[in-house]
Each structure stands twice: as C-alpha cells, then as structure tokens.
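Late entry, evening session. Most of the bench is empty. Finally got around to the prediction I had been postponing all week. Sequence below, unchanged from the version circulated by S.P.
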Amino acid sequence: MGSRNAEIGYFRIPHSNFDSTELVAGRIHFHLALIPVALMPLI
C-alpha cells in the first residue's frame, strides 16, 4: 500500500524533493517496472 501511494505521489509531484525513503523506493520500483514495458516492442 505504501508503494502504491509512492507511485501516486510520483505522478502528482514529479519534481518535488521529498525526504521520504518510501517515495524514493516507490519511484525506483516504478522505473524498474517500466523497463520491461519499454523494451517489449524491441524484443
């Protein structure tokens, strides 16, 4: 649930610097989730 809120925060305030490890972790997790999606058409 926490990572879900982090993803929502990523979209709502993309350029804000939060001192929140949860937000950073959610952002990293979200980027990692985007990598296979971005590579899918190339495979």
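Two things to note before I forget:
The mean pLDDT is 67.
The chain has two helices and no strands.
Will write this up properly tomorrow.
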